[in-house]
Design brief:
heterodimer; A: mainly alpha; Serine Threonine Protein Phosphatase 5, Tetratricopeptide repeat; 10 helices; B: mainly alpha; 3 helices; 79% helix; 0% strand; elongated
Chain lengths: 199, 89
């Protein structure tokens, strides 16, 4: 019981990640608006969004250990943690000029595709089972489709529509995470097996 | 107006629009958080803290959104605008 009191409800963890993801989205959106030349003029700003991605990947490991209820759930969170670390580390290396091969720019779309697949695979309930299920499906689809934006940026780094689309993917994911509840209806639907809804 | 002057004026207007967008991002985010708090005041448990546990008092999602907007507007946007204007000059 002590452990239960120490560990926050999982919806709170979603909100904390949503906060980080929202900040990441705003940084990427500002970078898309002013262009990489302006954004990258200050070294700390150059490392801001890759560093934030890396930090979110690190924070995903305790989530994997403390908040997963099945093997599939744990594997999905472990995969997220690893691909977020990969995307953050590769982007940090590119920002520092230490990684020069253009293929390193594919780490971000790879991370988004893998994250999207993980969302869809580990959510075993249908879309309208509960709000959490809907959120997982929604996030999976958004990440799979949204992964096309950084893929386009890997070939055309200064293509503004793709950069804006890439940033908005994170804003949408933040909204989905903020909307997450442990047990709550979605569009008036809540499967009786999901349990009793709370606020 | 000569073509060169018109082109320069158009370019300056577009660059100004970029600055306006970056300057608006923080306040829009803050506004979103405020609207959320007004629509769902029970999400801000600090308004009625009686009987709430630690995590419910710590987790205030509309305030998090407002915090992100404030952080972006005061910590990140000013430097971006300064660099943008220097580049435009």
């Amino acid at each position: 019981m002590t452990v239960l009191a120490v560990i926050p409800p999982s919806e709170h963890v979603h909100w904390w990640f949503a906060t980080g993801v929202l900040l990441l989205g705003l940084c990427l959106l500002a970078r898309a608006v002013v262009g990489p030349e302006v954004w990258d003029r200050r070294p700390w700003r150059r490392y801001l969004w890759p560093g934030l991605t890396f930090a979110l990947g690190m924070l995903m490991f305790p989530v994997m250990v403390l908040f997963t209820s099945s093997t599939l759930h744990m594997l999905a969170h472990g995969v997220w943690a690893q691909v977020m670390l990969l995307a953050g580390a590769a982007s940090l290396g590119v920002a520092a000029g230490k990684l020069k091969h253009p293929a390193w720019n594919l780490a971000v779309p790879f991370a988004l595709f893998v994250s999207g697949l993980s969302f869809l695979i580990h959510e075993q309930n249908p879309w309208l089972y509960s709000r959490s299920s809907f959120g997982h499906h929604m996030a999976g689809v958004v990440l799979l489709i949204g992964g096309l934006f950084p893929l386009a940026l890997a070939w055309r780094p200064r293509w503004t529509p793709a950069a804006v689309g890439y940033a908005l993917v994170f804003v949408v994911i933040a909204i989905v995470l903020f909307a997450d509840r442990d047990v709550a209806p979605i569009f008036g639907h809540l499967d009786p097996d999901a349990g009793a809804p709370h606020r | 107006m000569s073509t060169g002057v018109a082109t320069e004026a158009r370019t300056r207007a577009r660059r100004s629009a970029r600055a306006v967008v970056v300057l608006a991002m923080g306040p829009v985010t803050i506004l979103a958080g405020v609207v959320w708090a007004l629509l769902q005041p029970w999400r801000v448990t600090l308004l009625d803290p009686h009987g709430q546990g630690f995590w419910w008092l710590f987790s205030e999602p509309p305030l998090y959104v407002i915090g992100v907007g404030l952080a972006f507007h005061f910590l990140i946007a000013p430097g971006v605008i300064r660099d943008l204007e220097e580049t435009e000059r």
